[in-house]
Each structure stands twice: as C-alpha cells, then as structure tokens.
Amino acid sequence: MVLPSLLMCDFGNLEREVRALEDAGVAALHLDVMDGCFVPNFTYGLPIVEAVRRLTTLPLDVHLMIVQPERYIESFVRAGADLITFHAEAVGDPQPLLNRISELGAAAGIALNPATPLEQVDACWDRCDLVLVMSVPAGFGGQSFDPVALERLRYLRKTLRHDALLEVDGGVNETTIGRCAAAGADLLVAGSAIFRQTDYGPAVRKLTDLAVSQ
Ligand code: DX5
Ligand code: ZN
Predict the structure, then answer these.
(1) Which of 29, 116, 37, 41 lies closest to 69, judged by CA?
(2) Known catalytic residue: 169?
(3) CA angle, corner 149, sides to 66 and 85, nearest 5?
(4) Is residue 69 within 6 Å of ligand 1 at its C-beta?
(5) Could you report the per-residue pLDDT of 141-200, keeping only the tens digit for each?
(6) CATH classification of 2-212 is 3.10.129.10, yes or no?
(7) Could you tell me the CA-to-CA distances from 176 to 14, 137, 148, 160 in Å, in that order?
(8) Closest residue by CA, ligand 1 atom 4
(9) For 32-87, how does the pLDDT look when each residue is reduced to its tens digit (9 = 90+)?
(10) Catalytic pick from 10, 23, 32, 146?
(11) Three-class SS string for the chain?
C-alpha cells in the first residue's frame, strides 16, 4: 500500500487535499509530526491530526518525530490516530510505550533512523505491530533514498511477527519503490513523489503498480 505523507500538502486547502487523496485511492494517510527538537524541523501537531480525523474515515498513520513521545501518546490517540509510531532514538526502553499505545487501542510502531543499529530494539520486535524503516534521516521531505533500508527490510521481514507490518519512509519514488516492495515493505510512504504531481491519482496508481509487480 502506498501511503501519502501529508508533509508537502497544501494546508490552506486541507479538505480538498484529503478528498483528492481519497479519490486517488490511497488506503491510509501518513502524518508527520515534528517538534523542532527531535528533528531540526517543525511541522504540526494535535489540531491538524484532529482536523484530518474529521475529514476522513481513512486510517491515520501518525509518525511522531518528537522528544518524550510518552507525554503525548494519549492525546494523539484521542485526536484520532489509528497507528502511532515513535522513534527508538527518542526513548530509553520502548517496551512500556508500545504497551501503552496498545492499551489505548491503537496499533504501535517503532521507527529507526538509518544510522540507528537495529540491535537497539532487539528485545521489542515481538511487541511491534509495525516497524518503520527510515530510508532518510527523519526531518525533511525530498531527501535521497538510502539503500541501507533495503537490507533492513529484508532482515526485519524474517525477524518480525508474521502479522507485523513493515513500513518504509523517505525517498520512496518510482525508482526506489519496487526494490522496497521486493525487500518486504508492506506500507510505502511517499511525499514528494505524490505531492509534486498535479494529479495524485495517476501518481498513486503508478507507484502502486510498480510495488505490486514485484
Ligand atoms: C521525513 C518524513 C517523511 C517524508 C517523506 O522525515 O518522515 O514521511 O515526508 O517525504 P519524501 O517521500 O519526499 O522523502
Ligand atoms: Zn514519515
């Protein structure tokens, strides 16, 4: 499934953007929350997640790039997040937070930047509903895909629970998406590859075709 990252959408026309993505046939929306502290970029938080929740019944995949994510988990679930992913680099032991997200009724995911050793979360793989393999350092759209993500996807596909989802995020485009799908990614996040096009439908369909043909 190709998930659009709303980072580059037109926030002055949020409703129109969400409708256009629904019409394009996307299965969920990926929302990038950045706090200007965990990453050197600042995006948006709870009010936008709530606003998107009111606009659509599509599942909301919330990618938290914030320090101390434990402080805000409950609020993001209340705002309408169906899936919450926090960064391994932002917490000590991820386990309690994964448990907390599950208790609150959302799916729980861990994200890892390309430079973070996978071993850091070795003890938690069984507790993850999803693992997000970053193929760029978290923080900005439009960066180039780091192929280290492909090895990680292949390794995690073999290691994770069979029902766990594997997601890849960063530099996913027509050139890289096929390799990500072949390496085992279920959810393929795309920002610029969709939002730099005027018509989202053909862009989403082309990316989906390239992913499923693997
Ligand atoms: C980066 C974000 C991504 C980003 C993807 O930190 O997590 O979701 O928006 O954008 P592209 O596809 O342009 O790399
Ligand atoms: Zn993201």
Answers:
(1) 37
(2) yes
(3) 30
(4) no
(5) 999 999 999 999 999 999 999 999 999 999 999 999 999 999 999 999 999 999 999 999
(6) no
(7) 28, 16, 12, 23
(8) 141
(9) 999 999 999 999 999 999 999 999 999 999 999 999 999 999 999 999 999 999 99
(10) 32
(11) CEEEEHHHCCHHHHHHHHHHHHHHCCCCEEEEEEECCCCCCECCCHHHHHHHHHHCCCCEEEEEECCCHHHCHHHHHHHCCCEEEEEHHHCCCCHHHHHHHHHCCCEEEEEECCCCCHHHHHHHHHHCCEEEEECCCCCCCCCCCCCHHHHHHHHHHHHCCCCCEEEEECCCCCCCHHHHHHCCCCEEEECHHHHCCCCHHHHHHHHHHHHHCC
Q: Are 211 and 27 in contact (CB under 8 A)?
A: no
Q: What is the mean pLDDT of residues 89-107?
A: 98
